[in-house]
Amino acid sequence: MTTASIGQLLDSTVPMARTLKLEYLETTPERAVLRLPDQPEYHNHVGGPHAGAMFTLAESASGCIVLGAFGEQLSRAVPLAVSAEISYKKLAMGAVTATAVLGRPAADIVAELDRGERPEFPVTVEITRADGAVTGVMTVVWTLRPNS
What we know:
Elements (H helix, E strand, L loop, with lengths): L2 H11 L1 H5 L3 E5 L4 E5 L14 H20 L6 E12 L7 E7 L3 H9 L5 E10 L4 E13 L2
Antiparallel strand pairs: 1-2, 2-4, 3-6, 4-5, 5-6
């Protein structure tokens, strides 16, 4: 899948991502990079992006890398987020970017699916502001639930 098609798929299946007008900068099996534009309607009390908007940005980036890495498996398994944890490190102002990477080799995860298992795997996401400072870190644990 291309960056455009993954972004279109996410926007069509996850209305919240579309609502936030997320920008899909890169989506490959190795990495996904999404940007939340600076939008006053999604600001918090100090004028930066609201924590909920940053959570959605990071979770969406994690979903994009899952689609990029496991798009060929969608006919036999459904990707589902199992859990998510986020830490806000520094004040975020302006547009923020989320970069997601898989925490385990995709081949290992597909091998578990091939054995009839329901693999779980972490995706780590860093949220940065324009000056490169890391404003947040999220870990989302995903699973590929085999179709019955």
